[in-house]
Design goal:
Elements (H helix, E strand, L loop, with lengths): L1 E4 L8 H7 L6 H22 L12 E6 L4 E6 L6 H23 L4 H7 L14 E9 L10 E5 L4 E6 L6 E8 L9 H11 L7 E16 L5 E11 L16 H11 L9 E7 L5 E7 L13 E5 L2 E4 L14 E5 L9 H6 L1 H24 L1 H21 L1 H7 L4 E3 L5 E3 H8 L10 E6 L6 H9 L4 E3 L5 H11 L3 E5 L5 H4 L12 H12 L7 E6 L8 E4 L2 H13 L13 E6 L3 H6 L5 H18 L5 H15 L1
Parallel strand pairs: 2-8, 12-14, 17-18, 17-19, 20-22
Antiparallel strand pairs: 1-6, 2-3, 3-7, 4-5, 4-7, 5-6, 8-9, 10-11, 11-14, 12-13, 15-16, 21-22
């Protein structure tokens, strides 16, 4: 037996490893399983070049939990190690890396500490985060004299032992003696959870426990002629060793992508809209599949996030900084060996390769969308309501994406027709240019609530866009800054005549003297704090009283709601509207001739309440009074 002490010049490093090596203790299983996969892959490589002559046999990696013995074993049949290799790789290289880590760790900020983790070959020593003692039983694939099986043992101090043992099979068993405070890692459900999280797509089969399945009994039928099945117990294989992102797109069909999506997100019952297959080998390595899911209008926090892998080992699903912000709404998988493991998010965000990968993903998404638009515009239009949130988000937040997306971004009008930005400008510029040479894009945010305003605008020959999406308000502001001489106006921001102000005057049935006499009568029956009364000559078929809110004020109110604070801390923008009295409507004209003041007031209240009702502003007692008054008028 060989005993020794690892040459550590600093204080005992194990407490530091336990506390600071990883922020989450569960990572130990990922590290140990990944090491087992590496050992197996190296053996397969050696066999492929003729360095291993024997049959490799079953290379399945096995995870074994023994609650009674309080041990967790990770077993592989890979290349194994000799006593010299154990001494070199476990005692010297890894521990010298550990000591270097400790030295660099001292007097560093938390962000700097996190940034250096993962550069020191410390994966194996993560096992001491959950263990009182760790044993390695290993036998090398090599043949010859000094290749006997050996056992390495360490109790979490710098002391270790190495001794020769009998071991029949090639490979390595790492046995963790789980500490009492970490005993959850002996529970089947916890081990399954970690294996499914970190090892679901590793390239070597991983076995843990048994599972029950139904197996068809050949040649047997029940009394109704149906197949007979029996329950059998089989090894539970955790992982899919050949995920589709490792395959060539030409070898895959749509159903393959959908099947993989259901494998990634078994609780998402809706198929994705379409997918993008990433496959790059220069100037960095990147593979993956991204899916455009159907999003809910309220943009709930997504449970099904993009998963980041490094050589099929799960790293994180917090991909901010790796994937452009607007594409974090996508689902799927990205795999790149050029993304370092075990580093902080701040490190990832400043890493050069990560930035290149982020830019490439943006380009690939833009390429895919442009390809769909050019080759199958009908498909793009059919899916537009579901994908527009991704595109609008990208155009708002990413200048490079905006430059690409303006070719295929669509605007939809109330005739359910779709236009690119350029096409729509051509459509409306002649009829909707105002006296200031601004092309006015009219839009609605709720086609039911704003129905009468939409119809009134259409009667004047104007076109109205549907902008009811969750990001449309922000998108409008962004487009106004980028498009030359374009202004957006919500269809209820002005009367139809003034939405596109061409400085054309409509004659009024009431003169100035009649209007001055009527104004106090109307103001007496309305909320003067909330409404400013304006008399305007409109069409005879337009409503007698309309309510509008200026585009500027409404946008300020929207921004205020988004920011959650009042205007400069002074209580915010007031909720004010314009009450437009149509001086060409016969009911308004007849008001000044009405001698019965009670009837006059009843008519004003009724028209006022109808205008409120059209803007969903009539509520509570006022709504109840309106209903009663309406029934009385019917009598």
């Amino acid at each position: 037996m060989q005993t020794g002490q690892i040459n550590v010049q600093t204080e005992n490093i194990f407490p530091i490893i336990k506390k600071f090596l990883y922020s989450d203790h569960e990572i130990f299983l990922r590290e140990l399983v990944s090491n087992a996969v590496d050992a197996t892959q190296k053996l397969k490589t050696l066999a492929s070049v003729g360095s291993v002559k024997e049959e490799l046999g079953d290379l399945t990696i096995e995870i074994i939990a023994d609650k009674k013995a309080k041990t967790l074993t990770i077993r592989d049949r890979g290349i194994g190690m000799t006593a010299e290799e154990i001494d070199k790789y476990i005692n010297q290289i890894a521990f010298s890396g550990a000591e270097e880590f400790v030295k660099k760790f001292k007097n560093k900020s938390e962000a700097e500490q996190n940034a250096i983790i993962g550069h020191f070959g410390l994966g194996f020593y993560s096992s001491f985060m959950v263990s009182d003692k760790v044993e390695i039983y290993t036998k090398t694939y090599k043949k010859g004299g000094a290749t006997k099986a050996v056992k390495w043992e360490c109790d979490g101090s710098p002391n270790y032992t190495i001794e020769e043992i009998e071991k029949k099979e090639r490979g390595t068993d790492v046995i963790l003696h789980i500490s009492d405070e970490e005993k959850e890692f002996l529970e089947d459900h916890k081990i399954l959870e970690l294996l499914n999280k970190y090892s679901k797509f590793l390239p070597v089969p991983i076995k843990f426990g048994k599972e029950k399945n139904q197996e068809k009994v050949e040649g047997e039928k029940d009394e109704n002629g149906n197949d007979v099945y029996k329950e059998v117990e089989t090894d539970r294989i955790i992982n899919n060793t050949d995920p589709i992102w490792k395959k060539a797109p030409v070898d895959l069909k749509d159903e393959d992508y959908k099947k993989f999506y259901r494998e990634l997100y078994p609780y998402n019952f809706e198929d994705p809209l379409f997918n993008i297959h990433l496959n790059v080998d220069y100037p960095f390595n990147l593979t993956g599949v991204l899916y455009f899911p159907k999003l809910k209008k309220n943009l709930e926090l997504q449970k099904d996030k993009i998963q980041l892998y490094s050589n099929q080992v799960f790293v994180t699903d917090s991909v901010e900084g790796i994937v452009p912000e607007f594409l974090t709404l996508l689902h799927g998988v990205i795999d790149s060996p050029d993304i370092p493991l075990n580093v902080s998010r701040s490190y990832l965000q400043s890493d050069r390769n990560v930035k290149k990968i982020s830019n490439h993903i943006t380009k690939k998404v833009a390429d895919k969308l442009e390809e769909i638009f050019k080759n199958n515009r009908e498909e793009m239009e059919a899916k537009w309501d579901d994908i527009k949130v991704f595109i609008e988000y990208g155009m708002i937040s990413d200048e490079k994406f905006y430059e690409r997306a303006q070719k295929f971004a669509l605007l939809k009008n109330h005739e359910q027709k779709y236009f690119t930005l350029e096409e729509y400008h051509e459509k409306v510029k002649d009829s909707q240019t105002d006296k200031n040479k601004k092309v006015i894009y009219l839009y609605s945010t709720n086609k039911d609530e704003q129905y009468s305003y939409i119809e009134s605008a259409k009667e004047k020959g104007f076109d109205v866009l549907e902008m009811e999406g969750v990001l449309d308000n922000h998108f409008i502001n962004s487009l106004e800054q980028k498009l030359t001489d374009v202004q957006f106006k919500r269809v209820d921001a002005e009367t139809a005549e003034k939405l596109i102000d061409k400085d054309e005057k409509i004659p009024s049935k009431l003169d100035d003297k009649q209007i001055e006499a009527l104004k106090p009568v109307i103001e007496k029956n309305i909320d003067k704090v909330k409404f400013s009364v304006v008399f305007e000559p409109l069409g005879e078929t337009d409503a007698p009283i309309l309510i509008t809110q200026s585009e500027f004020l409404r946008r300020m109110k929207d921004m205020e709601k988004l920011g959650g604070s009042g205007m400069m801390g002074l209580g915010g923008f007031p909720e004010t509207y314009n009450l437009i009295v149509n001086t060409n409507h016969n009911t308004i004209v007849s008001l000044q001739e009405e001698k019965d003041e009670t009837i006059q007031q009843e008519k004003i209240k009724q028209m006022y309440d109808l205008a409120l009702l059209s803007q969903s502003l009539l509520k509570g007692k006022d709504l109840s009074d309106f209903i009663k008054r309406s029934f009385n008028l019917m009598k």
